[in-house]
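Why do we bother with a discrete structure alphabet at all? Because it lets us treat a fold like text: something you can write down, compare, and reason about line by line. To make this less abstract, here is a complete entry for 23S rRNA (guanosine-2'-O-)-methyltransferase RlmB. Read it the way you would read a sentence in a foreign language you are learning: slowly, and without expecting to understand everything at once.
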Amino acid sequence: MSSKSSQWIVGVNAVASSIENDAENVREVLVEAGAKNPRLVEIEENARRKGIDVRKVNSQALDGVGGSVRHQGVAARYAAARTYNENELEALVEAAEGKALLLVLDEVQDPHNLGACLRSAAAAGATAVIIPKDKSATVNATVRKTSAGAADRIPVVAVTNLSRCLKDLQKQGVWIYGLAGEATASLYDLDLKGNIALVLGGEADGLRRLTRENCDGLVKIPMPGEIESLNVSVATGVSLFEVVRQRG
């Protein structure tokens, strides 16, 4: 479904967003012949207006490129998502001029969760999202669809060694806070106005030991209800928007 130079994204929102925000990276659009959805007509017109090739195809062709993702009658062949390497992270932090906001995801493996986290990060104006190269979801078609276009608007940095990356960020003056349910300190008591990295763990085991040890502090989201933990994408949204609120 994807190659190094291009990949397919499917679904009305993902394709519409890619045409609207990043048309130069859309290679062609496939639209289901005879489909009655007015949004498909809108997508087709917008694509043609921007000089993108549009092909009418049957539903089976769309099934073929969409795999297990529901295509909703439309797909786009897209230049592969731009990935940033570790060497570019320093410049991204410097460009934020003391107000870097980094989201670090430690082995988030569900592409829907990664997509939702990217969407929240883009909405919060985060500087970058950092993921490990191993044991993490990659930015694939499912992630791009779930992120509603955010995957192409925010730098995603895949790093070889997450612990080393956190140490390097600390040398750059970034304060690193890990979210952990058993922490005693509250996220809401932190000063989040400077260079900040928020670290959230994966679905199964939360933060790994080495990741915890490289945080400046562990904090929790206070939860008065009887549920002990939040889904990682929900916790990401709550945490990022506390930073946004403080920076007001």
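What the structure line is telling us, in plain words: The longest helix spans residues 232-247. The mean pLDDT is 91.
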